[in-house]
Amino acid sequence: xxxxxxxxxxxxxxxxxxxxxxxxxxxxxxxxxxxxxxxxxxxxxxxxxxxxxxxxxxxxxxxxxxxxxxxxxxxxxxxxxxxxxxxxxxxxxxxxxxxxxxxxxxxxxxxxxxxxxxxxxxxxxxxxxxxxxxxxxxxxxx
Length: 142
Prior knowledge:
Elements: E1 8-14, H1 20-31, E2 36-42, H2 51-59, E3 81-84, H3 87-91, E4 101-104, H4 117-140
């Protein structure tokens, strides 16, 4: 496979499509672009990408150019794999997505943490690292 012709399409789904699904989309497209093309969407999109999510991606050398979108944007697209990355999205997953192989991971929403800037930044880093570890392990063995 060439880098411009990925082998598998994967959709990462969460509720707001502002943190977790955006981070994993960026990580997969950066680390696995030869074999995977990643997309992300939300069941209730926030219509923005959280700036701290972008910051922690950049700390790992990843520049993300995504945008927050509703899962209906992909109504006509087929995916080899749909990965749900939060509990709320799993409960509200559109029926049409059930035709794809689905995998569910539950990552805490880093935007839910309150406190000083360093504390919140540390939580985003923890979630980024957990996402990278678990999703990487899964995709390598897929």
